[in-house]
């Protein structure tokens, strides 16, 4: 089983998405108690813009592996892409509670507050926490922080990219 999982991961990393999907799908069928295959299927589907199956797989991943912060982070991204901001926020907050030192959900929740919820002060707090957890910093997010601090009432035009 570990060998099959590793092979599917290598296929995904090499861009052989169909091969990876087949491998993870087979593992999800033979080992439904494991979250990894479902999480990776969710990632594949989300990247392909197939949000409904992505959410279904990621929800299954967090059901069977409720202590995996990365799965909740991925689920938050998928919910945000579906426009379900309340569920996205909840998923990011769960990831942060599970792994307070895991930087990605702080960034992603910051983006949610910044661009989708219109809460600049909360976004600043989250971006600052993300930067504190990011060794070597992040020049792009540092720029976003400066923009937020200088922003008056003008609309946001910069795009933000989630952290996987």
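-> sequence recovered:
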């Amino acid at each position: 089983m570990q060998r099959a999982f590793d092979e599917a991961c290598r296929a995904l990393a090499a861009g052989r998405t169909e091969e990876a999907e087949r491998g993870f799908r087979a593992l999800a069928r033979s080992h439904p108690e494991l979250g990894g295959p479902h999480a990776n299927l969710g990632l594949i589907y989300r990247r392909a813009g197939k949000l409904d199956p992505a959410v279904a797989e990621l929800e299954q991943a967090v059901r069977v592996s409720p202590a995996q912060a990365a799965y909740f982070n991925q689920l938050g991204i998928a919910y945000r892409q579906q426009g379900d901001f309340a569920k996205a926020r909840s998923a990011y907050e769960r990831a942060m509670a599970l792994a307070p030192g895991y930087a990605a959900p702080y960034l992603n929740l910051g983006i949610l507050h910044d661009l989708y919820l219109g809460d600049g002060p909360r976004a600043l707090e989250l971006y600052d926490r993300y930067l504190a957890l990011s060794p070597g910093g992040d020049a792009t997010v540092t720029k976003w922080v400066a923009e937020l601090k200088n922003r008056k009432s003008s609309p946001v035009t910069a795009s933000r990219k989630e952290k996987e």
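The chain has a mean pLDDT of 93.
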